[in-house]
Amino acid sequence: MSSDIDNEYFCDGITEEIINALTKVDQLKVIARTSSFAFKGKDIDIREIGKQLSVNTILEGSIKKSNDKVRITAQLIDVSDGIHYWSKKYDRELINIFDLEDEISLAIADEVRNNFGHFEVQDHLIKQPTNNIDAYQLFLKGRSLQLKWTPESIKEAITFYNQAIALDNNYAKAYYANLQCYGLLAMWGYMPYQEAMDLAISNLLIAKEIDTSLPEYPLSFVGKFFWEEWDFKNAYLHINKVLEINPNHIDGLEAMAELCIALGIFDVALQYTDKLLKVDPLSANNHYTLAHIYYYQRQYDKALKTIDYALTLNPQLELAHHLKCFCLIWLNDTEQFNSFIQKTSLIEEKNLLFNLINKKDIEITNDDISKWSKGDNELTMLVPYDIFILCNSNHKELGFSRLKEMISLRRGQVINFRQEPFFKPLQNFNGFSELHQSNLVLQDIIPLQIEQEESPSILLDKQQIDSLKEELLCYFKEDEPYLNPQLTLKFVADVLGLNTNKMSYLVNQAFDVNFNDFVNSYRLNHFKTIALDPKNSHLTILGLAYDSGFNSKSVFNTYFKKTEGVTPKAWLKANS
């Protein structure tokens, strides 16, 4: 919700850091940046956001930065009723930004736990990546540019990453970011390939000496092994290392789905894509990946429906445009095909491919096809229309030769050649099955484990629970700590000599409720007692609620109605 345009890069960077921190908490489903940021600065009903993201709780907030000061406000909102059940404002020195990010992330995790039930939270969720705050701000500027994913923005991002490194030559994340940028420029052909790869490797060599615990370390090998060398076994091993560090890592999940597609293991690919969409449901790229699986399974109607949704999320996703074109070709939908390809590139090629697939008697002369036999188109085409045309014409031998050449060069455009419907005419050619032999045995691919609700770790045995339960009940009866509206789980944990994880576990196991409901039950009983006392008849219901420890009108009314089935006013009238 920040309106500070000049510091948008900073606000976005802090938000992403908090998202990434919360993903480290097991049993928390945290929506990734792409889907979360879809609602940035938009006035959309909380319930609609919750529905689109399939979540119960929204974290909303703003950031303001001025010189060396920063103010962060945050609130947690229940999407079912719009209740703000936690809010806080933080005013700090900018130099302590990493401690603040960690404090906010932990506070959010604690509040979700307090309201929804026990899960364990680590002592710290954010590791300080640099001691230099200026280097951090330069990194965030680079990150904001990199995420625009244009050749110009990526080149500009590198300049900021280099400036960050100049201020802190041990800034591992800046080196890894440079590595990714140079790798993309090499793959896209926007820098001389060897020059870009040499720069990428030099950044990797430095970064790995500083920190190999980051998921960026194994991820840096995935592009090399998977897309550059088609070494599927090593790609698989390194993708697994990424997911061991962060099971919800978007790039790791996507890479595993893509690897399974290349191997033709569509059931496993669907499992990883499903997980991708759970943590990043509004990513056009993720829906494109799902549509590609349906396409390779020859479920063209299903693929078309999915790709149409991807294009509503990002109308500029060029690969999605091509995939929609292919679906319409195989569905022989002449009317929609002709309408769709207008004002797009490669119209001649698309029409020719449509006619070759759907008008089987069409003949292509040597003169007509000559421009598809030059062998220089695959460097500029995102998808190889030229080879598709050759393979479905009376020039299949030439198409096979060109496909063989592209595979020998390890061109990413044809990495899924075994699954591609347009290559079906070549599958009986002598040597087709030997074009590329995967070094990864299909049986080695482990399907994604079905996520089941885990039983909480046994932090306290039954005897400890029984003993601590009595101690807790005695404390609440004698000291009435619930009357303090600022009472926290940590405060109660300190009184009983426990850490917050054990305190949360105790309340959950002993009373089968979350911490806030446990405390609010005492507050509600206290409210009932003083509300029926004639000497308090001059006080308002809200005043009595505050005297009982509630610090929010909405929380009081919601909890009261949930527990009693009627409003506080109706209850008081019925019991007076």
TrEMBL record:
Name under which the protein is recorded: Tetratricopeptide repeat protein
Highest taxon in the source lineage: Bacteria
Location of the HTH araC/xylS-type domain: 470-574
TPR repeat ranges per the UniProt record: 284-317
Statement: the UniProt record of this protein carries the keyword Thylakoid: no
Tagged with keyword DNA-binding: yes
Lineage: Bacteria, Pseudomonadati, Bacteroidota, Flavobacteriia, Flavobacteriales
Gene3D superfamilies reported in the protein's UniProt record: ABC-type transport auxiliary lipoprotein component (3.40.50.10610), Homeodomain-like (1.10.10.60), Tetratricopeptide repeat domain (1.25.40.10)
Pfam families assigned to the protein according to its UniProt record, in alphabetical order: HTH_18, TPR_2
InterPro entries: Homeodomain-like_sf (IPR009057), HTH_AraC (IPR018060), TPR-like_helical_dom_sf (IPR011990), TPR_2 (IPR013105), TPR_rpt (IPR019734)
Alphabetically ordered keywords of this record: DNA-binding, Repeat, TPR repeat, Transcription, Transcription regulation
